[in-house]
Amino acid sequence: MSALHPEEKISMLGNKVPSIRRLSLPPYNWWNEALHGVSFSCCPDIYFKSTSFPQVCSLGLSFNRSLFSAIGDAIGLEAVEHVWRVGDVPGLTFWSPNVNLFRDPRWGRGQEVPGEDPYLNGEYAAEWIPALQYGLTGEGRGGGKPRVAAACKHFAAYSLETGRRSFDARVDERDLNDSYLPMFKRCVESGALGLMCSYNAINGVPSCASAELLTNKLRTEWGFEGYVTGDCSAVESIFTGHKYANSTEEAVAIALRAGLSSDCGGAIQSRGMAALNSKLVSMEDVNRALRDLLRLQFRLGYYNNLSSPVNEPSEGMGSSRQRLYQVRMHNELALEAARQGIVLLKNGPLPFNLSNHHSIGLFGPNADSPITMQGNYFGEAPYLITPKQGFEDMGAQVRYLKGCHVSDDTISESDEICKVAATADASVLIMGMDQTIESEGRDRVSLTLPGAAQDKLIRLVSSCSQGKNTKKPVILIIMAGGPIDLSSYKDDENVDSILYVGYPGQAGGSAIAECLWGQFNPSGRLTTTIYPQEYAQLVDLGDMRMRPSPSDGFPGRTHRFYVGNVVYPFGYGLSYSHFKRRLISSQNQSTDIEVEVSNEGPIDGSHSILLFHSGPSAGKEGNPIQTLVGFSKVTLVVGETRTTAFSTDKALLQKPGVHKFFLLADNEDGERTHKVIVD
């Protein structure tokens, strides 16, 4: 560092670092994405393919820890492989995962996170991050050489797009500590090497300007030793959006003094010298920030050979034969992830069989829309199998009529749609949303299906499927990131089955087809509460409160605090099989819990176990109604019984009184509750 001039040091505090030829230092790009597949921001002209796994909202539905880590490992392998293939333009740092809370169902980026529960989001990070950085074997964890670096975002209390560069999140201390921060602490505990501060302010202080967050909480209290980058233009927004500084150079100085290491957007690189010359910031602050960055780059091995800083790594995919094998494995993993991310919400006739359900009327805007299946933040997929293609590959005879776009108010080809629905063995509607409705920079305004045409199309197909003597099955599939009010279809006897599939990635169509025709048994569970439309009319998007407030009718948020009516609750999900469960505790006043699950048939399948706790004052005095404290996935053949052990936090039993550990009630029976009495 002593060889660097002040101007050179400042030039290294941005996402695009230029080469310093005087010292033979190569350029570097800090901004790369790995949300659910590799996506470089640096070089759109460089062509490569990477596995497009299901969007994170879909991955969360699996409640499968081993799946989270397997996908992290696969993305890490592909990331380091692409860096070697592309050369020294992209970097080894990836700004993923997004662990913010899916606080409000209208949030446009809710699709990027596992769900509405801080424990779930934190555990997702705890599995995904080490696997991405070090692989599944764990070699190098705890101070060894990582292959790439993850960065958790967006720190903190970020969960809306509307006015995000100037939004001040008013959050009380209790909500901050038990809802908005736990997943970031879990990131640090899991060894995340980077973190991104968010656009919003918290109680008047922009996140990227908060020494309380970036230094006191993150580094001093939690022991974080990595780098902190600002979201793109977040430092500039300290001045332009929040008016917390009087100039861009003052904003730069405030951020660096608070503990920021780097800036996406160029504010530090363009105004850092002015801040330094004006003595708004010290060289000590600049050196501290640069040390954060260089320490990580050296740990990643970026400067091991200055003539060619990124060499083919031993952690990559190896020889051509090994690469081919790995590609096949990753493609199969993408399919398996899509399977596990399907939630069966309502069922009548499923699963189909080809002899009785061979001709299919297929309708809806998302039935043959490859790009929609990927959600956002994706690279170039090797292939994209839509539901239409998946049905055809299954051997079904498909007659496809789109009917409408996601936001249309009128449907097209009504007469032809009615004829197809009347003559097909079954009708399948694949509806939902896309990035024109929910995305970065765009929140939803309603919880119902967008436009009027989608509802009209569902009603038309349902009506036309009714014969004089027989009724043809009508299956509704929702492809979307955020939850949608499905109450009118849940209660409609003419809509026989409802499935939610998130954004299922490159193999989504195959997974949906396999599910409908019974080649696998759905096991996904909702990671968000599905609220009625009235929720959006009652609750302001910018209200950051989590707990209900009887004084003004605020109903609270998420399964932990919400006291209103729901369409479907958090954790809900049906199966083609009947699973019987029994909850066991080893002894009284113990948090060691065992859950026995039996598959009573009729087909083999997997079951997601969700373990909850409620304390003596649950739902009172601001305490959660219920808290998710464990989850696990078990796979059982018909007639098989397995026992899964959970060792939960003993701190749960601090308060005297009756504590309950329980499983959600859906279509399973058995002993679901265990009481622990603490004197």
Task: Write a brief caption for the model.
The strands form seven sheets. A six-stranded mixed beta sheet has the order 13-18-17-16-14-15, sandwiched between helices. The protein has a five-stranded parallel beta sheet with strand order 5-6-8-11-12. Residues 309-314 have low confidence and may be disordered.
What does this structure look like?
- By secondary structure, the protein is an alpha/beta fold.
- Among the domains are: 149-296, Glycoside hydrolase, family 3, N-terminal domain (TIM Barrel), CATH 3.20.20; 340-538, 3-Layer(aba) Sandwich (Rossmann fold); 577-678, Immunoglobulins (Immunoglobulin-like, Sandwich).
- It is 29% helix and 18% strand.
- The protein contains 19 helices and 25 strands.
- The strands form 7 sheets. Strands 13-18-17-16-14-15 form a 6-stranded mixed sheet, with helices on both faces. The chain has a 5-stranded parallel sheet with strand order 5-6-8-11-12. Strands 22-21-24-25 form a 4-stranded antiparallel sheet, with no helix packed on it.
- The longest helix has 22 residues, at 65-86.
- The model is unreliable at 309-314 (pLDDT under 50).
